[in-house]
């Protein structure tokens, strides 16, 4: 009678069992990243710092970051764009990373002004577009398309108009969907703080997941 090696059979069974359990785990690790889908970016069409017409279709199949700003902003915009440059440099040379910076003061922020601003901040990513256009369209995109607040405070006899906006960045995937990570309670954070290193670290990590 042939003697069965029960130790060998047991080990083989364990390996097969582990393999059956592990395969879906491995498949999951190559599936969709664990990020919430917030909504779809509406269609848009604006002019960039080079005088080119840029639409949401130009970002198709790219992961991109969105902000609303204006070039004469004296406080949070410089911080936001210094941090955006950090994101640019983290993915230097990667053609699949884009940035869209929409000016909420398009009357002043002409393509020529935006071009000078891009040079001052050392914006080198060819897919980082500083965008200007019709004020109504930009404000609609900000407040309704992204739910990122942007507003204008009318001027008076003694002061010029001023502008208000959030310091948050939006993250958009290759299909044009706004994405975000979840917080510790399982709720989507929706937007990333463009004013803190923590927020920049988080969005860089999540860009890598999408890429």
TrEMBL record:
PANTHER family: ELECTRON TRANSPORT PROTIN SCO1/SENC FAMILY MEMBER, LINALOOL DEHYDRATASE_ISOMERASE DOMAIN-CONTAINING PROTEIN
UniProt xrefs under Pfam families: SCO1-SenC
Keywords, in A-Z order: Copper, Membrane, Transmembrane, Transmembrane helix
Chain ranges passing through the membrane: 6-23
Taxonomic source organism: Jejudonia soesokkakensis
Domain Thioredoxin: 35-205
Family assignment from sequence similarity: Belongs to the SCO1/2 family.
Name of this protein: SCO family protein
Source organism phylogeny: Bacteria, Pseudomonadati, Bacteroidota, Flavobacteriia, Flavobacteriales
